[in-house]
Amino acid sequence: MFQQRIITGLALVALFVVIFLFSPPWLVCVVATLIILLASWEFLEMALPEQAFGDRLLCLALASLIPMAALPGRADCLTGSLFVSIFALGVRSLFSRKELKARFEELELTLFGIFYVSFTLSHFVLLRNLEDWKPWIFFILIVTYFGDVAALFSGTRWGRRKLSPLLSPKKTVEGALGGLLATVLAGYACKLVFFPALTSFQALWVAALLSASGQLGDLLESLIKRSYSIKDSGRMLPGHGGILDRIDSILLAGPVGYYLAILI
Q1: Residue 107: which of 97, 120, 93 has the closest Cα?
Q2: Contact 129, 72 (CB under 8 A)
Q3: Residues 159 and 74 sit within 8 Å (Cβ to Cβ)
Q4: 133-179: per-residue pLDDT in tens?
Q5: Segments making up each domain of the chain, as ranges
Q6: What whole-number distance in Å separates Cα of residue 32 and Cα of residue 65?
Q7: Are the beta carbons of 57 and 114 closer than 8 angstroms?
């Protein structure tokens, strides 16, 4: 399992890096939209398996609108597309024939799914439009990946104390600390190789924040799956679960990296 996760992770990181480095912004947007649609479908299958097909299509259409709105590289367009989602789903809930509580619960879950999947991943489309986007792409993807692998290895090898038994029985405090240490080291290595403009202090605390956000993203997806008694988010990747299972760490790390890039 450990070797499979390393190979899968490396393949995904390499794929994302190649897409970002050698593709125009519109193609990055197309790839991001495709991933968002697949991951959104998985989320809705977990949270609302009996959702009407028309409502499902509306949710997917709104989810795909957000990365397209991010294509010009303007955050205000991104937030504007979120308002469109709130408006459209709110109107749909008002005219639904379901019970009032069922309407509101579906509204809550669909809006959360759009924020959780589409809004977060669309930050990579925004990031592609920054002037110094290349080193940040390397930094975010490589640091998050090594933190994920190191947390798994440390937890498997030395893990004793459970980090959050209810959310993820296999995750341990030792694994989280191992992931944090590996992330900091990977961040410093990325600074030396890809990002000399970043100071050593900046590289360390940015890497630490990316590590924390990546592990929180992992736990958040575990919360969703445990809430519905589901082991994997889907079966799109045989032997590795679903799309969400593979991108859960970058769902929060991506936006954190984008706003840190602007801040720095």
Answers
A1: 93
A2: yes
A3: no
A4: 888 888 888 888 888 877 777 777 776 777 776 777 677 777 788 87
A5: 2-263
A6: 11
A7: no
